[in-house]
Design goal:
Distance between the termini: 24 Å
Structural class: alpha/beta
Strand order of the largest sheet: 6-11-10-9-12-13-14
Number of domains: 3
Radius of gyration: 35 Å
Length: about 625
Amino acid sequence: MRYTREAIEGSLHILAKALSDDLGVRVVMGGARACTDGKLIRLPALPADDRRARLYGLGYIVHETGHVEDTDFEAYSQFALKSPLHEALLNIFEDVRVELARMRRYPGAKLTLGSLVAAMVEDGKFVLSTDAQATPAVLLQEYLLYRLRFEVLGQLALEPLARAADARAAALLPAVKAEVDAILFDIRSAASTADAVRISERLIEVLRRNASPPPNQGQAPPQAAPDGETPDRGNADCPVSQDVDSANAAEQEVGAQPNAGCEPPGVDDADGVDDGEAEYAKERAPEHGAGTEPATQASSDPGADAASASSQSGEDDAAATTDGSGLPDAAECGALQAMLDASEAERLQDFGERVAHALGDIAEQSDNMLELPEAAEFEGGPTQDAHAVLSEVRSQSNALRTRLRTQLEAVARSHPFIARRGTRIEGRRLYRLALGDSRIFRRQVEGAKLETAVQLLIDRSSSTSGEVIELSKLSAAALAAAVEGLGGVDLSIALFPMALPGQGGPAEGVGVVKPFGAPLRKVAGRLPWIRAAGGTPLAPAMLWAGLNLLRQNRSRRVLFVLTDGEPDNTAQCLEVLADLRRMRIEPVGLGVQHDVGHLFEVHGRVDQLAELPRAVFAMLSRQLLEAA
């Protein structure tokens, strides 16, 4: 289906299922919480009339389908296992990368995600940490999270938080912040999870390199040497040029001190994982399903090495701009080390987890849950003689079928006429020129293009037992026979409720008697098996019908509901009908000895059962011809 503005503003239940069909990602609605395992996305049963539920649910689907499509979960897990800081930084960068890719692929995603974030800010899901919570690791994560989402993703509701987090980061990291900033916006050009991993690695390396103070920081400045003597410069700040003897002496002194001089502190050992990372990986491995230490990732992307080299060059340039006066002091070094030593408790909650918890809260607090039902082809029993069934349908509804076809064909037919202007002369009308009549050009009024999909939904609840269900079947079959072969109109027949295999509780499934595009002769044998049974779960059935109509490539979509009683949940029905109209689906309701005007804007009622087929034909004919 095409994701028009009308579709996006319509039912979350319908769009969730449509997305799962189009993207090859399973989206299931039901249960009490939202979650994903990288292959399946589950949403809780949500209220149909809650705008907040629609915002959170749709935003969650857009965000998580991005991960299912674009995230390399193996590369992600191997890096995240190293330490809480590794996981926290990669989580932020990968979320931003995936959402940016979503926005580039689907323009509507920016509005959807922006609306979600605005709702989260309004609901207090995005806030700054308190002074008691504001450890260096938390402040760093807040800075990256809010600034990247505001500046890269354009989520404007985060601007106050981004500016406040920026000020706190500048106060915490006065010497290193510029070097951090030189790295983090590379996420704009990241094309894969591996790129997000490399950006996270570079940022952690900046933190490590600056976490240990220079060897002589905090010591008294060297005393002035007496006249004629050379001052002892030791190893202060790695002088750019020294004489050979001084350099050798300094080298000997440096050799006695680990991480002294210009060698970056905290460089990883040969296998790329230090002791702390290895210990964290062992603790986290069972949770992530990994039993070994993560290996350093190598990119198979032909352009990855060049991109990495370019990024490394940018990092070196940024580092080279920091002279001795710009080195971090002891307090800043302590903050950097605290970031590297962050615990799991300091890791900010993942964006998807925040939305999932909010959806769980909405589901828990609501008592108006609605789920999209499953559907299956209605079989009923052994297929009966379709020819005999069709003969009976035609014999009992021939006049009605003929009238409907005549009306529809008349509307679709082109009508020629003679006009005073045009490009094609009608030779038989040239004599008119001698009479002063210039109407000699042949023109044509094109017939209306019906291009309509009609979903006929039959209520077969227990109250329809007897003549009602029999006449409903006859009307549906006669309609299908009338429009079959008529260009531009396609009709599907479905009934509700139907118990599906493995379904617990009351039957709320939908049975498809005639799918769109199926010839009536192939399914007519199913009609005699339709029996009355169950309640009237009209809202879920109309949800399914809306989804089925949106899948049809037609300019008009009509939902025709045939029912004889009150639905199980009137409030849900009203909300679903409003959603369908927003999606430019035209709902029509016909009540059998029952008024449905409080539900359907376009509605009718039939009290004499013998008039049911005639009423069905009249209403559908009027709806098809109205906009033609």
